[in-house]
Design brief:
Number of helices: 4
Low-confidence stretches: 238-242
Largest sheet: 7 strands, antiparallel
Shape: globular
Strand order of the largest sheet: 3-4-5-6-7-8-9
Helix content: 10-25%
Oligomer: single chain
Strand content: 35-45%
Structural class: alpha+beta
Length: 242
């Protein structure tokens, strides 16, 4: 259960992601840097090491959402979907990411949608895995959103999508304050379908945002629902970007 918002810019982009989880799940860890295949990567993580969003030193971002509309599930020995982003986090192009994904034991990974943002070529690529086939879809370099929900995915997409479309009409649309307001929004009312999601057993448990400029890349992270955020913890790296 997540909401990912991409803001297109001529020389960069911004990305915001609400992570929605069961309240019984262990708390995620704030962003940390690591080196993989010669690249600097920054990402938050689950206690087991998996992650749902990552940014590398080529300003490429990856964000993963579960695909609940596909109801088929792995029966035995499932591999965490958190390993998907780890596997591609150092990839600097869609083709390199393709190779990394094909190396995974996909038959043991539950359905997912992986979004890759490649600013050098102004490409947005989405990989969809339905337990039978990995489909690669290219999106235009436009401001857009991806939504998942284990409660009722179709309704969540409709309700949050409407909130997103209405927000696009605001004068401040595309700004960072606008993005943060959108991700802490309870419209039309606080509940399972609001962008900042709240249920008795689950909620939005963190907010991550990425800001990519021509020479720098920034990741900010807030642990907890974004509606309670006062100032997000900032992790900044500009290795190889200056």
């Amino acid at each position: 259960m997540c909401t990912v918002t991409f803001i297109a810019r001529k020389r960069g982009y911004a990305l915001g992601m609400n992570r929605d989880e069961k309240l019984s799940r262990l708390t995620g860890r704030p962003p940390n840097k690591k080196i993989l295949d010669g690249h600097v990567i920054i990402s938050p993580s689950e206690p087991g090491g998996g992650t749902w969003i990552a940014l590398n030193d080529c300003r490429v971002s990856y964000a993963l959402i579960n695909w609940y509309s596909i109801t088929t599930r792995v029966v035995d020995n499932a591999v965490s979907r958190g390993e998907v982003v780890n596997s591609v986090s150092a990839a600097i192009s869609p083709d390199v990411a393709d190779i990394a994904l094909q190396r995974l034991p996909l038959y043991r990974i539950n359905p997912f949608r992986l979004v890759g943002i490649f600013p050098a070529t102004s490409e947005i690529v989405e990989w969809r895995w339905n337990l039978q086939k990995l489909i690669r879809k290219v999106h235009h370099w436009n401001t857009q959103q991806w939504i998942s929900s284990g409660f009722n995915e179709r309704t969540a997409q409709r309700v949050r999508g409407k909130t997103f479309q209405q927000a696009l009409d605001q004068r401040s649309a595309g700004g960072m304050d606008w993005l943060r307001r959108l991700h802490r929004s309870h419209l039309p009312q606080s509940g399972p379908f609001s962008t900042c999601m709240h249920r008795a057993d689950a909620a939005t448990v963190s907010y991550t945002e990425i800001i990519v400029l021509p020479r720098t890349a920034t990741m900010r992270y807030h642990a907890g629902p974004p509606c309670a955020a006062k100032q997000a913890h900032a992790e900044i790296f500009n290795s190889l970007l200056q």
